[in-house]
Write a structure and sequence with these properties.
It contains 15 helices and 21 strands. The chain is α+β, with helices and mostly antiparallel strands. Helix 8 runs antiparallel to helix 10 and helix 14 runs antiparallel to helix 15.
């Protein structure tokens, strides 16, 4: 999933007035102002994180990134194609009504319905009959069957190993469909409810009194929006923010502060940064490989990430089965020049688009300097997100700086969106990379149910794509978060969907 703020984005804090450390609420910062807090329309990290707290799905993710029961207390499948879910009969919406299998079916059909126009309908498109329902050919999805109020059967068009993980995504969260359109936010069954939403300023969550895991340790969770990084740090130091991601440029200072270092939490992100290359414009892989060999990625990572990031020699991050620490593109300016000369591109000129971001600018200015040393003239074009996204997704730019953040901890979430030809453009494959053999292998790997065999298959696919160099591969980042002295029990989740505030305690 894309991050909604600038590249190498920090969790931006907000500009609304906050309360001091005596607040009975956990005070957090949003990356960006949410646009829609509705699972059918959650498209970025801020929206997804809040939706995961307000809406339960059949399954969810623990803070450690492990798939765990939610509305479904148990499930079984024999072939990876037909799943039977047994719902927890204690589950209640925030209005007190019981959650039934019919609610799950209605929520899924709402996301798939053509009239909804959900940008996340792809999450459920593998269910048998979903395509016909989306096109309006059928009035129901035959692959979703309610046996009784607490038993649901879902059948896929074909076995798909990551399906359970996809059911933990926001689009597969369950809503009380009757509440849609009544207010700004549908009614959910998660542990929290939205009690206040001041657009552009803050979102306040309070406990759902009908949830089995009723939060009793804090009065609520308040997300605030503060656009400027230094203002955000000032808010932390004044005690109005409890947990904050430290901007990359500030990490060395915080690490050197012995009084604060014990309150730092480090997370290896399931995320990759890269310069995407428009492969139809540069069909000769020698040009693309040359651009990789021209960049000293190890040095770039050391300088920009305080030595905490890992150079990327593929798209699958460490921590996800399928990652391999293979030999990368060695920093070799002479080889880069030779490859450019062999490809007839000695005087290569290209435009690289990036979103408005100080951190992203630092990255591309370094890459620009490396390329200049081998005779490549790169012009940096800065645009705000919507203009950037439109141009890049339409294939109108030479190259672009982007990152990809895991929706779920599976190699398929990096290979299929980013390199399958079915997703060229806005689907995620913004390099417009196309290789029929890679497409076939990605499709085949998604049907392998044995985890070890699938990890090997995904690693092989990643190596094939890496050799074709549709990107200039940069790094897998790590981030540091600092926790206020008054907070205990906070867990930094592996995934943004895995926030867990059940053990939080606040010293008053």
């Amino acid at each position: 999933m894309r991050r909604a703020a600038g590249l190498l984005a920090v969790l931006l804090a907000g500009c609304g007035g906050g309360e001091r450390a005596s607040s009975p609420m956990l005070e957090l910062a949003l990356e960006t102002t949410p646009n829609r807090l509705d699972p059918a329309f959650a498209v970025d990290v801020a929206e997804g994180e809040i939706c995961a707290l307000v809406f339960d799905g059949l399954v969810g993710f623990s803070p450690d990134g492990v798939l765990s029961p939610a509305l479904a207390r148990a499930w079984e499948t024999n072939d990876g194609q037909r799943y039977t879910f047994h719902l927890d009969t204690r589950a209640r919406f925030a209005n007190g009504r019981s959650v039934t299998a019919g609610d799950v079916r209605s929520s899924f059909e709402r996301v798939l319905a053509p009239g909804t126009a959900s940008p996340r309908s792809w999450v459920l498109e593998r269910i048998r009959g979903a395509a016909g329902f989306r096109s309006g050919e059928t009035r129901a999805v035959p692959g979703i069957e309610t046996i009784d109020d607490s038993t649901l059967v879902i059948e896929l068009e074909a076995p798909f190993a990551p399906f359970l993980s996809m059911l933990a995504l926001p689009a597969a969260r369950v809503v009380d469909v009757a509440s849609v359109g009544v207010g700004d936010v549908p009614v959910g069954s998660g542990p929290w409810v939205i009690s206040e939403w001041v657009r552009g300023d803050r979102v306040t969550l309070t406990p759902n009194p009908h949830h089995a895991l009723l939060a009793r340790s804090v009065a609520g969770v308040r997300y605030r929006v503060i656009p400027e990084p230094f203002t955000r740090i000032a808010e932390l130091e004044s005690g109005t923010i409890d947990v904050l991601e430290i901007p990359d440029a500030e990490v060395p200072r915080f690490l050197a502060d012995t009084e604060r270092s014990s309150r730092l939490l480090r997370r290896a992100e399931l995320r990759v940064f890269y310069v995407g290359l428009n492969t139809p414009r540069y069909p000769d892989p020698r040009i693309r490989r040359a651009l990789n060999h021209a960049v000293n990625v190890e040095q770039l990572a050391r300088v920009l990430q305080a030595g905490e990031s890992i150079p990327a020699h593929g798209s699958i991050p460490p921590g996800i089965p399928g990652y391999r620490d293979r030999t990368g593109y060695a920093y070799d300016p002479a080889l880069a020049k030779q490859l450019l000369r062999e490809a007839g591109a000695e005087n290569l000129k290209l435009e690289v688009w990036l979103r408005e971001s100080a951190e992203g600018g630092r990255v591309m200015e370094a890459v620009q300097a490396y390329w200049s040393a081998v005779g490549v003239e790169a012009t940096l074009v800065r645009r705000e997100w919507s203009a950037f996204k439109q141009a890049v997704s339409a294939g109108k730019v030479d190259a672009f700086l982007l990152d990809w953040f895991a929706d779920y901890p599976d190699a398929e979430n990096f290979l299929y969106p980013l390199f399958h030809s079915a997703n060229r453009g806005g689907g995620g494959n913004r390099s417009f990379f196309s290789d029929p053999e890679v497409d076939r292998l990605i499709d085949d790997a998604s049907r392998i149910l044995d985890p070890a065999a699938r990890a090997e298959a995904c690693a092989h696919i990643d190596s094939l794509v890496f050799a074709e160099a549709p990107w200039v591969y940069l790094y897998f980042p790590a981030t540091f978060h600092i926790v206020s002295e008054r907070v205990s029990g906070y867990r930094l989740p592996t995934l943004y969907l895995g926030n867990d505030f059940s053990n939080i305690r606040l010293a008053q």
